[in-house]
């Protein structure tokens, strides 16, 4: 009798549906206590991809019972106007999460804008206070994509303690916070990037590979240790013949026979990112209830 092959595909859609179900239940419980979690998304300009992302975030929030609001500002909005809006939203106790959709137009300083968001409302986890808190191993609002990757890894492998993880990419939104989360989970972490030597050899030593590069199918079976678990964050649109399709940073077909588990693209990390935005909005609402009232001087 043939033994069934173990399930290798990490189903991000199913995992995200479980996170959304948890959030829905907790939002309902919070509403029973008189608190209605609310998310505000700000979009500056008409970038088509950003418009789709914002729409999806708002729709997913509504599905969770989270009150959501969009501010669509013209591309020539001044930095001062944007900062003033963020200031108003910071002061509005009925708004729990503030997300500024990136990228911003070139005339606006992204860092200054992200730093203007109240760290307790920073549902993207990009404020320096949250970045610092994460690197100290504290429980803070954490970037959604790496947080989603961690849930997929823990669902698939259980305790990650002592595993060697290689993170390919060192961006502020994925690579660096991913490395910090893996360290927090007691992994041995190697971060590699475009200037790293011996990339393939380093990857071959990894029990866990997280690819967040933006290079279609950079990582193939030859880069992977047998039995590794692979999280493919990359989203790359390629054209094959007359067809255009999305692929990850990992060559899925070559990697699949060799790995213990792998995320597909699409349907892997992507759905988790938005699910963790909902989770972060709920966490932000909780943190704001727990925060001491500002003193009146
Ligand atoms: P960035 O472009 O900000 O960072 C890419 C990183 O990859 C950099 O650190 C860069 O190195 C490194 N890199 C580039 N080329 C190579 C190479 N040949 N070898 C090794 N390292 C290399 O991208 P992001 O982190 O924002 O995103 C990465 C990918 O993840 C993209 O495809 C993006 O679309 C996707 N993404 C998916 C999300 C999801 O929800 N699924 C969410 C966010 C991103 P260096 O620092 O030296 O330049």
**Could you say which overall geometry the principal axes of the C-alpha atoms support?**
globular
Strand order in space, largest sheet:
5-4-6-7-10
What's the N-to-C terminus distance? 77 Å
CATH architecture of the largest domain: 3-Layer(aba) Sandwich
Helical region count?
Answer: 10
Provide the number of structural domains. Answer: 2
Could you report the average pLDDT, rounded to the nearest whole number?
A: 95
Largest sheet: 5 strands, parallel
Strand and helix order: HEHEHEHHHEHEHEEEEHEH
Q: Give the number of DSSP strands.
A: 10
Q: Which percent range fits the helix content? A: 40-55%
CATH topology of the largest domain: Rossmann fold
The structural class is: alpha/beta
Q: Return the CATH class of the largest domain.
A: Alpha Beta
Strand content: 15-25%
Low-confidence stretches: none
Quick take:
By secondary structure, the protein is α/β, with parallel strands linked by helices. The chain has 2 domains: 34-121, Leucine Dehydrogenase, chain A, domain 1 (Rossmann fold, 3-Layer(aba) Sandwich), CATH 3.40.50.10860; 144-271, Rossmann fold, CATH 3.40.50.720.
Written description of the protein model:
A five-stranded parallel β-sheet has the order 5-4-6-7-10. Strands 2-1-3 form a three-stranded parallel β-sheet, sandwiched between helices. The protein contains ten helices and ten strands. Helix 1 (12-32) packs parallel to helix 10 (269-290) and helix 2 crosses helix 10 (269-290). With 297 residues, the protein is of the alpha/beta class. It is globular, with a radius of gyration of 20 Å. Helix content is 41%, strand content 16%. The protein binds NADPH dihydro-nicotinamide-adenine-dinucleotide phosphate (NDP). NADPH dihydro-nicotinamide-adenine-dinucleotide phosphate binds next to helix 10. The site of NADPH dihydro-nicotinamide-adenine-dinucleotide phosphate has 25 residues, from helix 10. NADP(+) binds at residues 169-171, 235. Residues 143-288 form the Tetrahydrofolate dehydrogenase/cyclohydrolase NAD(P)-binding domain. One of its GO terms (cellular component) is cytosol. It catalyses: (6R)-5,10-methylene-5,6,7,8-tetrahydrofolate + NADP(+) = (6R)-5,10-methenyltetrahydrofolate + NADPH; (6R)-5,10-methenyltetrahydrofolate + H2O = (6R)-10-formyltetrahydrofolate + H(+).
